[in-house]
Amino acid sequence: MTQLRPFVLLAAVILTYAEGPAGLSIGLLIVMVNELAALRLRVTAWDEGGIRLPGWLRWPFHRERRQPFPTFDSVASDVSWATKSGRDFDLYISKRFARIARARLLDLNLDLDALADDPAQARAVLGRELWLVVDPTREQSRDRDSGGVDPAQLHRLLDQLESIGVDRRGSGTRA
Q: Distance between CA atoms of 91 and 142, rounded to whole angstroms?
């Protein structure tokens, strides 16, 4: 496109001379379109070459590929959504916590669904707060207007999840 720049400028001058102010407007429009096309071609070449460009220079709807840690990105996104509403917490985090709790309980030869029949034992094994989150009989929230879970509560729930089956005295032995 830079090779066309002299011809585009010449066309703008000729249009200005021939048509006056209207020609000047058309000539400037032609110059602007040429420069934008040249910028777009340069941006595409830079972008494909691996150079990270500012967002305003990228093509619209261009998605960056985050190859190294897609699972981390997914979890980080879920945690972010969980703090927005009760529905988002149930949709994203409580399901993850339930899967992890099932796996930890299997190490103790317990089943999460079987614990649903005996809530007292479930609270004893999992803790009251965690049981309220992973209880398979609990109905999921549909309320998007309610506040989500604060990060401190998420941290406490995660600590309870990690301590399933660990001796409460801190010796690290299985219960």
A: 9
How many Å apart are CA 1 and CA 3, to the nearest integer? 5
If you write DSSP's letter for every residue of the chain in order, what string do you get? -TTTHHHHHHHHHHHHHHHTHHHHHHHHHHHHHHHHHHHHHHHHHHHHTT----GGGSPTT------S-HHHHHHHHHHHHHTT-HHHIIIIIIHHHHHHHHHHHHHTT--HHHHTT-HHHHHHHH-HHHHHHH-TTSPPP--SSS----HHHHHHHHHHHHTTTB-TTTT--B-
pLDDT digit string, tens, across residues 55-83: 555 555 555 555 677 788 888 888 888 88
Reference 140, options 100, 79, 83, 90; nearest CA is: 90
The residue ranges of every structural domain in the chain are: 5-57, 72-162
CB 53 within 8 A of CB 47: yes
CB neighbours of residue 81 within 10 Å: 16
Q: What is the DSSP letter of 76?
A: H
Contact 114, 136 (CB under 8 A): no
pTM exceeds 0.70: no
CA distance 1 to 143: 54
